[in-house]
Amino acid sequence: MRDKDVKQEVKGGVIDDKEERIKRCKEAGCQNKILYKFRTGDAIDEIVNEVKEGNYDLVLLKSNSIDSWMKSLFSDTRKILGNITTPGLIVQ
C-alpha cells in the first residue's frame, strides 16, 4: 500500500503527451482553460473528489462499456457520474 503523502515526479512521455494534446486543442481554436493533474489513490474516489473540489463546467469521461447496457450500468464511469453534480459527457 502506498502512502498518500509520498510525492513522485512525473516526467517524460506522459507530460509530453498531455502538452501536445493541449497544443492541438489550442491550434484548433479552443479558447477554454485546459489543465491536467496527477493524483494517486482509488481512481473513482480521486476523480469524484477532484470534480467536487474544482469548479468545472463539464466532466469528460471515456467509457469502454457503452456497448452493453448491463456493463454500462456498473461501469466506473457510471459510478463517477452518480457521485457528482457537474454535467458529464461520456465518449466511447
Question: Overview of this structure, please?
Answer:
This protein is mainly alpha-helical and 92 residues long. The protein has one domain. It is 40% helix and 9% strand. The chain has helices at residues 13-27, 43-53, 69-73, 76-81; strands spanning 59-62, 88-91. The chain has a two-stranded parallel sheet. The protein is globular. The N and C termini lie far apart (32 Å).
Low-confidence segments: none
Global morphology: globular
H/E series: HHEHHE
**Main structural class:** mainly alpha
Q: Tally of extended strands?
A: 2
How much β-strand is present in the residues? 5-15%
Tally the structural domains.
1
* Strand order within the widest beta sheet: 1-2
Number of helix segments?
Answer: 4
Distance between the termini: 32 Å
The major beta sheet can be summarized as: 2 strands, parallel
Helix share bin: 40-55%
Rg, alpha carbons: 15 Å
**What's the rounded overall pLDDT mean?**
82
Features:
4 helices; two-stranded parallel sheet; mainly alpha; 40% helix
Brief write-up:
The chain has 92 residues and is mostly helical. It is 40% helix and 9% strand. The protein has one domain (13-91).
Topology (elements, then pairings):
Layout: H1 13-27, H2 43-53, E1 59-62, H3 69-73, H4 76-81, E2 88-91
Parallel strand pairs: 1-2
